[in-house]
Amino acid sequence: MLPMVFNRCHSSWVRLVCFVAGFAVLLSIAACRRGAPVFDPTPGPTQADGTISGTVRGPEGTSAIEGREVAVVNVDTGAREQMKTNTAGGFTFKVKPGKYRVELALLSGEVLVKQPGVINVNRSDVDAHADFVVGASRVSRPRFPAPRSQDGLGAPSA
User: Fold this and answer.
1) pLDDT score, position 59
2) DSSP readout, 81-95?
3) CA angle 79, 82, 83 (to 5 degrees)
4) Which residue(s) pair with 98 in the sheet?
5) What is the pLDDT of residue 78?
6) Angle, CA 147 vertex, CA 143 and CA 148 arms, to 5°
7) Tell me: the pLDDT tens digits for 26-35?
8) Which of 26, 43, 70, 158 is deepest in the core (most CB within 10 A)?
9) What is the pLDDT of residue 77?
10) Is this structure's pTM higher than 0.85?
């Protein structure tokens, strides 16, 4: 069929147009073959719509804390997921859209110096970040003896 089309075309410009038209016809015929459907009606795997990731660090945010238990809690449903921090003090949760609170298990004598608030993950969020900084709790003691006052009877009282 293609040589017959070329025989009817005399000038080089007309031959180019005929060649392109013939090639387009061949591509159209090849595209009409049976194959995999364009639309796959089977449900795909369920996917998380976002992530919450962060780090747990020691005092002044300098050293990573490994193996610490971190939990993410959906504020609306109460659904909870837990994991331990990696060697770099990092964690990552795959979550559905919603409001989340990230919690960190503290050891005896520790306090949180920095902690994230409620994180709102929506479909446009690719990644939400939550960082923790852990410090030692301080017991405040007076540097000087407490002042004594007179109780009116001539004896000092503490």
Assistant:
1) 81
2) EEEE--TTSEEEEEE
3) 155
4) 121
5) 94
6) 145
7) 767 766 666 5
8) 70
9) 93
10) no
- Give the chain's residues under pLDDT 50: none
Q: Which residues of 86-105 are buried (b: 16+ CB within 10 A; e: fewer)?
A: eeebebebebeebebbbbbe
Tell me the C-alpha to C-alpha distance, in Å, between residue 123 and each of 37, 80, 88, 120: 28, 20, 28, 10
SS3 of 54, please? Answer: strand
Taken as a whole, the chain contains a residue count of 158
Sequence letter at residue 21: A
Q: Which residue has the tokens 């007179």?
A: 150
* One-letter identity of residue 116: P
**Lateral strand order in the sheet of 119-121:** 80-84, 69-74, 98-104, 119-121
Helices first, then strands: H and E counts in the chain: 2, 10
Class assignment of domain 50-136?
mainly beta
Model pLDDT for residues 7-42, shown as the tens digit of each residue:
555 667 677 777 887 777 776 776 666 655 555 566
Rounded CA-CA distance 66/89 in Å is 5
Lookup: tokens for 49: 């719509």
